[in-house]
Every structure is written in structure tokens, then in C-alpha cells.
Design a protein that fits this description.
Blueprint (H helix, E strand, L loop, with lengths): L15 H7 L7 E6 L2 E6 L26
Antiparallel strand pairs: 1-2
């Protein structure tokens, strides 16, 4: 597990291994959430980058009459 140190300006550096794994680059935005005594940083992805992420999903399920596809 990686650990970071908070600077006097309350800044942290995300370890290289984590940045590489999540493809985080300089200028990317992260959502910050506090859960009890835990902080989570979640990368915000542009909608365009999510295009096709469910490629191959089965769309041949039975639908009710009049239901939009």
C-alpha cells in the first residue's frame, strides 16, 4: 500500500504507480469525498472518453411493448 505525506500547504503527491494504473495526468480533475475518517480521490472522466466502455453488452433482452430502445 502506498502512503503520502501532506505538505504544509495541504498538498499530496499521488504515487507514480497509482497515476500510471489510473492514467492520471497533470491537469486531470479528481472528485474528493470524505467517508468517516477516509478520503477518496476519484478521477473525473470526460463523457467522450467513456464512449464504447460497454462494448459487447447484450441488448437482445425481451422488452415490453412500447418501450424505447
Amino acid at each position: 500500500m502506498n502512503s503520502v505525506k501532506v505538505s504544509p500547504k495541504f498538498q499530496v503527491v499521488i504515487p507514480r504507480a497509482v497515476r500510471s494504473r489510473l492514467s492520471i495526468k497533470a491537469g486531470d480533475q479528481l472528485r474528493v469525498a470524505a467517508f468517516g475518517q477516509r478520503i477518496e480521490l476519484v478521477p473525473l472522466k470526460k463523457p467522450k472518453s467513456l464512449r464504447g466502455f460497454v462494448k459487447g453488452i447484450n441488448t437482445s433482452v425481451p422488452r415490453e411493448r412500447g418501450e424505447r430502445v
